[in-house]
Amino acid sequence: MRLALEQARAAASCGEVPVGAIIVSAEGEIIASSHNQPISLHDPTAHAEINAIRKACIKNRNYRLTGATLYVTIEPCCMCAGAMVHARIARLVFGAWDKRSGACGSIHDLVRDERLNHRVEVIPGVLEHDCSKVIQDFFSTRRNGKQNLKQVRPGWPV
After folding, report:
1. Among the options 27, 29, 49, 128, which is catalytic?
2. pTM of the full predicted structure?
3. Is 49 tagged catalytic?
4. Residues 65-102 pLDDT 10s
5. Cα(153)–Cα(26) distance, rounded to whole angstroms?
6. By the 8 A CB rule, do 112 and 119 touch?
7. d(CA 74, CA 51)
């Protein structure tokens, strides 16, 4: 999870919402790492989890990540939860709960829905305080006007 936090901080330094993700293979090897990039890539699907899943699948030359564990700093949304189910990720370890759009136990629980053909083991709350703090600090800074996207990316509309 500490590596996912490093990825989250990298996202924040680029003006992206600080979410980081790491994927570890069934053998214990880190096969992908990423962070949020929807702003910089002009892609609403470029969440940390999706980016990491794409990288891991390319590395494995397989669209299935059987036995893999995904570590992410915040509870995944519906899109990311669906991608995890389709990729057959075995385990999700996340830090902070997302009470607004979480889909792995807070608002929805897509990854453990018995109607689906695959379920993901969920381990919530790992380094929860640290993961929450990264996001809270990011938005606090933005709300207080200390940083905005125009400062990070001059010329970008906000």
Report:
1. 49
2. 0.89
3. yes
4. 999 999 999 999 999 999 999 999 999 999 999 999 99
5. 39
6. yes
7. 15
